[in-house]
Amino acid sequence: MKTILFIIQKEFKQIFRDKSMLQLIFILPILQLLILSNAATFDVKNIVITFVDNDQSRESRDLINSFKSSTYFKVTEPYFSEKEAIQEMQKGKTDIIVNIPIHFDRDLQKDQKTTISVSINAIDAATAGVENVYVTQIINTYNQNIQMQSNYFSGNKEIPQNIMVIPSFWYNKTLNYKTFMVPGILVLLVTMLTLFLSSMNIVREKELGTLEQINVTPIKKYQFIIGKLFPFWVLGLVILTVGLLIAKVVFNVPMLGNIFLVYGFTSMYLLLILGFGLYISNHTETQQQAMFIAWFFMVIFILMSGLFTPIESMPKWAQSLTLLNPIRYFVEFIRMVLLKGSGFYEVLPNLLIVTGFAVFVNGMAVWSYKKSN
């Protein structure tokens, strides 16, 4: 026990002696959480929309004003030629072109129907889909207002029936994307920092030549491994604490669940990540190699974790691969506990899977570490 405490004390001294390491551990994660949480958004705003108003009527102007009143659109000066508007889209100066036909007002009043052409730049398919929903909603609202104000409903002058829908938003009442993204980004930062530091830790000893000296001492393998990794386990919990404080104070993320459950799950999750970092360091000779391999796996883990792309939207084979992704289970867990207030039994499957991964990965890491007395 004294040997383990001595190694832990030595590791903490080495960490706090290196000023660049302190910046990496404490300052960078805070900046990343503040920046990424504001930049990574699912909201599509500042959509540049151009109208080709061939009718120049009161109704066409009312339609254009409906888009101007929306905070999601930036309405450009109208064009009188669709060709000019298309040229603007080709230059990347507009995202949507709405072509209002001639006799728009007359057809709407006389025939009770008309057609509007909407052209959307769909290079980014996801953004184009959201833009299409926005445009459709505004046009439908405008159409309902026209029906209510018009005197030409039908021959018997019946007023059309309207269905009012009152949605109830659970877990994120304000529909603020930060409420959804901040917990996931916090998971990402905790994972990246602990994985990179642990994977480069033993490799650094190899580069300095001190690992060979340690290997010929009476220190047991488990004593050395625990002593080297325990400080990073503590630092992972410290980063989690700082991140939770920022999430609550800065972004007002609700924390409906048991916070001790979050720390318990994170403690087990960190054992998994530290074991994975140890396994990487056992099979690399330089810190550059360890960093490259760790980053290679992190890119895959991040993109297939459900943090930015819903797992349900992935192909079946990709959804199957995400079952091997530890970040997926932590992202699901922290969102369930913080945002939905889920209890122990609701998150038990995630905890059991992470525990199984931790036992397996740490077993492989300890087995692969070679020590000669």
Overview of this protein structure:
By secondary structure, the chain is mainly alpha-helical. It folds into two domains: 13-40 and 177-368, no CATH class; 47-121. The protein is 65% helix and 5% strand. It has 14 helices and four strands. Strands 2-1-3-4 form a four-stranded mixed beta sheet, with helices on both faces. Helix 3 links the parallel strand 1 and strand 2 (73-75). The two termini are 19 Å apart. The mean pLDDT is 82.
Q: Which regions have little confidence, pLDDT < 50, spanning 5+ residues?
A: none
Helix content: 55-70%
Indicate the mean pLDDT: 82
Strand content: 5-15%
Compressed to H and E, one letter per element, the order equals HHEHEHEHEHHHHHHHHH
Q: What is the C-alpha radius of gyration, as a whole number of Å?
A: 29 Å
Shape: elongated
Main sheet characteristics: 4 strands, mixed
What class, by secondary structure content?
A: mainly alpha
How far apart, in Å, are the first and last alpha carbons?
19 Å
Widest sheet: strand ordering: 2-1-3-4
Give the beta-strand count: 4
**Domain count:** 2
The tally of helices reads 14
Domain ABC transmembrane type-2: 136-372
Family: Belongs to the ABC-2 integral membrane protein family.
InterPro entries: ABC-2_transporter_component, ABC2_TM, ABC2_TM_bact-type
Keywords: Cell membrane, Membrane, Transmembrane, Transmembrane helix, Transport
